[in-house]
Write a structure and sequence with these properties.
single chain, 264 residues, alpha+beta, Glutamine Phosphoribosylpyrophosphate, subunit 1, domain 1, 2 domains, 6-stranded antiparallel beta sheet, 26% strand, globular
């Protein structure tokens, strides 16, 4: 677990963010600033401990901050002939984005949220994983854009105001529904989406790149035997990738249910 924060047209008070999110990234904390763009990364070192420092840069054009893991990043490097200076999955994301842009997202097997600053086009690109396992909250009042892995970090650096109408959802459902939060101008980035901000105009485009509904509406003609074989193959591949995606020891916390029994 790492922590990320960034801003357009707003100077990030790095010490305040560090105080609120140090628990997410105790190993390293580094910042990046260029024009009206600021990035901050708090790192928990798991993969390529010596070479995976962030914010990471590529070709004097792209800068990334990333929270998560890409389990098939080594396979993607080999598949597309990508060569870098490290074996970090962070660098793999940069190399893929340089070649494929947002089309890279469908290639990824992992949990992630990341932001890439394109110095040439003066844009900031944000993307979140399919299930929304890695969180990101975005403040946008039309003048400045600020984002962070946790709401308490935004609350510490911005004069946030409660949005009373959102509490009706909370009282009814017990949660803030989908992108809603307790605060005005603050939304949780939805799972399976990407956003591109123009750093000059602060205009933005949002697009859903993955939707589970598409799989429910796709007809599958496999018989039981074929379905079991495919499930077994995918399960073994998934576990193998996760075991190989860390330079540290890997442990499992299992509940003892059906899913846990399949994993073990």
């Amino acid at each position: 677990m790492c922590g990320i924060a960034g801003a357009i047209n707003f100077h990030l008070p790095f010490d305040s963010i560090r105080e609120k999110m140090l628990h997410r990234g105790p190993d390293e904390q580094n910042k990046f600033e260029d024009g009206n763009v600021s990035f901050y990364h708090l790192r928990l070192s798991i993969l390529d401990i010596s070479g995976g420092c962030q914010p990471m840069h590529l070709a004097d054009r792209y800068t990334i901050i990333f929270n998560g893991q890409i389990y098939n990043h080594a396979e993607l490097r080999k598949q597309h002939g990508l060569e870098g200076k490290s074996y970090s999955d962070t660098e793999t994301l940069l190399l893929l984005y340089e070649r494929f842009g947002e089309n890279m997202l469908n290639m990824l097997d992992g949990m992630f949220v990341f932001s890439i600053y394109d110095r040439q086009n003066n844009t900031v690109f944000l993307a979140r994983d399919r299930a929304g396992k890695k969180p990101l909250y975005i403040f946008n009042d039309g003048n400045k854009i600020v984002f962070a892995s946790e709401l308490n970090a935004l609350k510490a650096i911005l004069p946030l105001e409660l949005d009373e109408k959102n509490f009706s959802h909370y009282f009814r459902l017990g949660v803030f529904y989908r992108h809603l939060t307790p605060y005005r101008h603050v939304k949780e980035m939805e799972a399976g989406t990407w956003i591109r901000f123009d750093c000059s105009s602060r205009e933005f485009v949002t697009q859903r790149w993955w939707n589970i509904h598409d799989f429910y509406t796709t007809l599958i003609s496999d018989d039981l035997s074929s379905a079991l074989k495919k499930t077994d193959t995918l399960l073994h591949e998934s576990i193998k990738r996760r075991l190989a995606s860390s330079d540290l020891e890997v442990g499992c916390f299992l509940s003892g249910g059906i899913d846990s029994g399949l994993v073990t």
